[in-house]
Amino acid sequence: MRTYIIFAAVTVLLFLVLFIGKKIGYGIIFEKLAIFWFRLACSFALLYIAHIAVDGYDIVVPVNFFSALTITILGLPGIMCIAVLTVFQ
């Protein structure tokens, strides 16, 4: 029962932060976090598509969190970095 109360309290606090946070300025933080998560998801999709596309040529593209995080943070240089690491492994 205690777990449910704690879960409900955390949920209510997050709900209040979402609505009250727009007046304080938390909206910018949530927006940047949403952009980061979207870029991370796109990075995983890109790695997965690349893994499937070059699998017939016996090239293994690593689909892991570090590769996706590198692409998410660096962008095009991150893609080039993962490509070089993939070719020279």
Structure notes:
- The protein is mainly alpha-helical.
- The chain contains 4 helices and no strands.
- It has helices spanning 2-24, 26-53, 65-74, 76-87.
- The longest helix has 28 residues, at 26-53.
- The radius of gyration is 19 Å and the shape is elongated.
- The model has no long low-confidence stretch (mean pLDDT 83).
Distance between the termini: 52 Å
Helix content, binned percent: over 70%
Q: How many DSSP-defined strands?
A: 0
Q: Summarize the biggest pleated sheet.
A: none
Q: Which geometry do the CA atoms define?
A: elongated
Strand residue content:
under 5%
Helical run tally: 4
Order of helices and strands: HHHH
- Total domain modules: 1
Please provide a brief summary of the model.
By secondary structure, the chain is mainly α.
List the keywords.
single chain, 89 residues, mainly alpha, 4 helices, elongated
Task: Outline the fold blueprint.
Blueprint: H1 2-24, H2 26-53, H3 65-74, H4 76-87
